[in-house]
Amino acid sequence: MEDYGKDELKVPLLDQPLDGVAITVPEQKDKGSNKNVRTIKLKIGEIKCTSCATSVESVLDQLNGVERVVVSPLDGHAAVSYIPELVTAQNIKETIEAAGFPVDEFPEQEISVCRLRIKGMACTSCSESIERALLMTNGVKKAVVGLALEEAKVHFDPNITDIDQIVEAVEDAGFGADIISSGNDVNKVHLKLEGINSSEDANAVKFSLESALGVNHVEMDHAEHKVTVSYDPKLTGPRSLIQCIEKASAGPNNYQANLYVPPRRRETEQWQEIRTYRSQFFLSCLFSFPVFLFSMVLPMLHPYGNWLEYRIHNMLTLGMFLRWIFCTPVQFIVGRRFYIGSYHALRRKSANMDVLVALGTNAAYFYSVYIVIKAVTSDKFEGQDFFETSAMLISFILLGKYLEVLARGKTSDALAKLTELPPDTAHLLTLDTDGNVISEMDISTELIERGDIIKILPGEKVPVDGTVTDGQSHVNESMITGEAIPVAKKPGDKVIGGTMNENGCLLVKATHVGSETALSQIVQLVEAAQLARAPVQKLADQISKFFVPTVVIAAFITWLGWFIPGEAGLYPRHWIPKAMDGFELALQFGISVLVVACPCALGLATPTAVMVATGKGASQGVLIKGGNALEKAHKVKTVIFDKTGTLTIGKPVVVSAVLFSSFSMEEFCDIVNVAEANSEHPIAKAVVDHAKKLRHRMGSTTEQHITEAKDFEVHTGAGVSGTVGDRTVLVGNKRLMRDWNVTVEPEAEKYISENEQLARSCVLVAIDGRLAGAFAVTDPVKPEAKRVVAYLNSMGISVIMVTGDNWATAAAIAKEVGIEKVFAETDPMGKADRIKDLQGKGMTVAMVGDGINDSPALAAADVGMAIGAGTDVAIEAADIVLIKSNLEDVVTAIDLSRKTISRIRLNYVWALGYNILGMPIAAGVLYPFTGIRLPPWLAGACMAASSISVVCSSLLLQSYKKPLHVRD
Question: Which of 509, 558, 562, 577 has fewest C-beta within 10 Å?
Answer without folding.
Answer: 577
